């Protein structure tokens, strides 16, 4: 080798195009495993002779752990290991195609070259990622449009609300934003697994199963000072309210900037969105999934118990709960450990709910295993099965005597309208039937029994379970809450309590009603209202009772989840109690976004955002936050002057798009009376 250091051309553009990595904004070569990439270097005499390449990764590279490869020039690409094939040479330069095995460890590699007996010379570093476009890779996804969506798409839609009113908001995953890949690599190097045994940890990084599990632990701050700190208290003054984020980039950058201190605060969709960013960035196809009426079965009995006092207040007793919705992830890879039918979508959940193996991590659980009730298969299948299938028991609890009475039980309550974003369009797709057989069908009950049996719950006496005669008791009346007006923040809430006598003799009913503001997890935060009434219902009679909760009554009490739980506990004389409950989500007023003119690459285009204050008082502390990959750098924050009652504001700002194609602009407007009014706008950028 000549005395001069060889100079290298990494062919970033060509390799990036071939490897679907050109969206990364990086000066470093980023390629996918199991596929050749080309480099050219100068300053080597007779380059085609006895060159040896060394590719190594991790702290102590070795051949035994597959973190070190030495390979010389060969005539053909190797299927098994690393290989190098000369494409073209001149007197002092060589163009060489290098290929890695389809199951190589992913991460940052150091590449050096050795000629003859001289010592190796460093050529620099490159990053190797999973390859869903390669049929030999564990993450191979045969459908091109799905690869585009689940690996390359930076915009997502996350579904929220409740099963009666599903809402959606946009999210900027931003996996190709500057420095995000480096942050994802440092997440792996800060995990407990790496800290305990770095050599073994790095050697397992060829396996999406292993990395999915490790990263589900690292995205939450529990145990390992991971990325996001959860907070479900309703009070977020010393951090950012979980509902104010609009993308993962800001969260991951803040984590790095603060010296890797957990970012305050997240709730389930934040954990799921950040995990989507990290896994897409590394090349594992991933999406977010929302499960409505999601069970958190803390004691593993596939049953969720909810307790109410005589006034109808929901009691925080026991660790079980039902959330209006919960967001987790699905990632696509094979399950060589379970067998081919369990490959495909795998459930991962980074929200810290229950410990698994001593730390807060969850999955991968095979979605097929969940549907078939195979809850004995790795990892965390019983917990995920319960999230979509648990039975619900509602109890009346008397704190004076400690006595609990079953009000009713329901087996069709949990796991509704399981949702994800459509491929290639901004729509909701329902995937409930991929998680379970039809509710109420014999097959669905059989699977539930199979799961109970596998968990050893069939034969065990459960002293906390309701007795058969309790379950079979039939109520004398039925009740429901109907909405009688608009459901908007700033307006009075008008409801009707509808009670119907199911019997052919008159019934006297005493009703205790309460309303609380809650989080989306149904955790009560502030008491809003209570009332009671007594009524005698004639045989088969139906009566309606109007209920009004005025805006000033709930305005101070509402959380940013804008959710009010109304409950009526009906005490029927000489009959069993009837619980009527409804979770009501109020809508924020709308904001309107218009793109003024045509959006072209590298040309300015103006956007106008309009908001009208719909209430009778002034709103102040108005802030507009805007972000969008390929439309603007970072996050734009604009302060807006106070708005009087019914006054309209209009704010203009400019974008300079950097890439053609359909791009998404995410807008978040907040003020003292309305938090996090979100919308997104698709902007079609042309060249």
UniProtKB/TrEMBL annotation:
Names of required cofactors: Ca(2+)
Q: What class of enzyme is it?
A: transferase
The residues that the entry says bind Ca(2+) are: 389, 391, 439, 444
In short, the EC number is 2.3.2.13
Please list the reactions this protein catalyses. Answer: L-glutaminyl-[protein] + L-lysyl-[protein] = [protein]-L-lysyl-N(6)-5-L-glutamyl-[protein] + NH4(+)
- Active site positions: 268, 326, 349
Annotated GO MF terms: metal ion binding; protein-glutamine gamma-glutamyltransferase activity
Q: How is the cofactor bound?
A: Binds 1 Ca(2+) ion per subunit.
> Which intervals hold domain Transglutaminase-like?
260-352
Q: Which UniProt keywords apply?
A: Acyltransferase, Calcium, Metal-binding, Transferase
Family, according to the entry, reads as follows: Belongs to the transglutaminase superfamily. Transglutaminase family.
Name this protein carries in UniProt: protein-glutamine gamma-glutamyltransferase
């Amino acid at each position: 080798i000549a005395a001069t250091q060889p100079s290298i051309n990494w062919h970033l553009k060509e390799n990036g195009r071939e490897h679907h990595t050109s969206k990364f904004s990086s000066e470093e070569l980023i390629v996918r495993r199991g596929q050749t990439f080309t480099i050219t270097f100068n300053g080597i005499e007779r380059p085609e002779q006895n060159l040896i390449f060394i590719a190594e990764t991790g702290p102590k590279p070795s051949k035994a752990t597959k973190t070190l490869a030495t390979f010389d020039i060969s005539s053909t690409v190797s299927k098994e290991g690393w290989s190098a094939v000369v494409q073209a040479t001149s007197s002092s330069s060589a163009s060489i195609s290098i290929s890695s095995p389809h199951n190589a460890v992913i991460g940052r590699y150091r590449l050096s070259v050795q000629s003859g007996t001289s010592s190796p010379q460093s050529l620099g570093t490159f990053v190797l990622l999973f390859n869903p476009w390669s049929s030999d890779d564990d993450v191979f996804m045969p459908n091109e449009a799905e690869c585009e969506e689940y690996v390359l798409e930076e915009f997502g839609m996350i579904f929220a609300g409740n099963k009666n009113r599903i809402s959606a908001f946009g999210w900027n995953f931003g996996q190709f934003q500057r420095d995000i890949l480096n942050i994802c690599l440092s997440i792996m190097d800060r995990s407990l697994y790496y800290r305990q045994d770095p050599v073994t940890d790095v050697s397992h990084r060829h396996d999406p199963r292993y990395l999915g599990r490790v990263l589900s632990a690292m995205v939450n701050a529990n145990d390992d000072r991971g990325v996001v700190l959860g907070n479900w208290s309703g009070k977020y003054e010393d951090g950012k309210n979980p509902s104010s984020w609009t993308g993962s980039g800001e969260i991951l950058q803040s984590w790095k900037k603060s010296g890797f201190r957990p970012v305050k605060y997240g709730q389930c969709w934040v954990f799921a969105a950040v995990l989507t960013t990290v896994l897409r960035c590394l090349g594992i196809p991933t999406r977010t999934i929302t499960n409505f009426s999601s069970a958190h079965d803390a004691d593993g009995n596939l049953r969720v118990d909810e307790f109410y006092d005589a006034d109808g207040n929901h009691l925080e007793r026991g660790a079980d709960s039902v959330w209006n919705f919960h967001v987790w992830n699905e990632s696509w890879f094979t399950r060589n450990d379970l067998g081919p039918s369990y490959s495909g979508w795998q459930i991962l959940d980074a929200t810290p709910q229950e410990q698994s193996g001593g730390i807060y991590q969850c999955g991968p659980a095979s979605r097929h295993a969940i549907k078939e009730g195979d809850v004995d298969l790795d990892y965390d299948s019983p917990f995920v099965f319960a999230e979509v299938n648990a039975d619900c028991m509602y109890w009346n609890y008397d704190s004076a005597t400690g006595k609990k009475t079953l009000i009713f039980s329901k087996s069709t309550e949990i796991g509704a309208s399981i949702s994800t974003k459509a491929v290639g369009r901004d729509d909701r797709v329902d995937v409930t039937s991929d998680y379970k057989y039809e509710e109420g069908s014999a097959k669905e009950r059989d699977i539930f029994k199979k799961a109970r049996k596998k968990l050893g719950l069939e034969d065990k006496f459960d002293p906390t379970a309701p007795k058969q005669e309790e379950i079979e008791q039939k109520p004398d009346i039925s009740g429901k809450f109907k909405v009688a007006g608009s459901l908007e923040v700033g307006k009075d809430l008008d409801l009707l309590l509808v009670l119907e006598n199911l019997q052919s003799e008159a019934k006297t009913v005493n009703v205790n009603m309460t309303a609380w503001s809650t989080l989306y997890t149904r955790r009560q935060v502030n008491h809003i209202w209570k009332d009671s009434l007594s009524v005698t219902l004639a045989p088969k009679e139906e009566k309606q009772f109007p209920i009004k909760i005025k805006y000033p009554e709930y305005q101070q009490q509402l959380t940013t989840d804008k959710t009010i739980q109304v409950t009526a506990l009906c005490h029927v004389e000489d009959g069993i109690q009837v619980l009527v409950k409804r979770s009501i989500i109020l809508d924020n007023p709308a904001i309107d976004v218009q793109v003024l003119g045509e959006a072209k690459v590298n040309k300015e285009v103006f956007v106008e955002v309009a908001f009208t204050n719909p209430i009778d008082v002034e709103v102040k502390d108005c802030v507009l936050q805007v972000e969008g990959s390929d439309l603007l750098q970072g996050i734009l924050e604009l302060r807006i002057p106070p708005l009087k009652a019914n006054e309209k504001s209009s704010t203009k700002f400019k974008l300079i798009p950097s890439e053609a194609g359909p791009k998404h602009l995410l807008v978040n407007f907040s003020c003292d009376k309305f938090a996090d009014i979100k919308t997104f706008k698709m902007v079609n950028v042309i060249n």
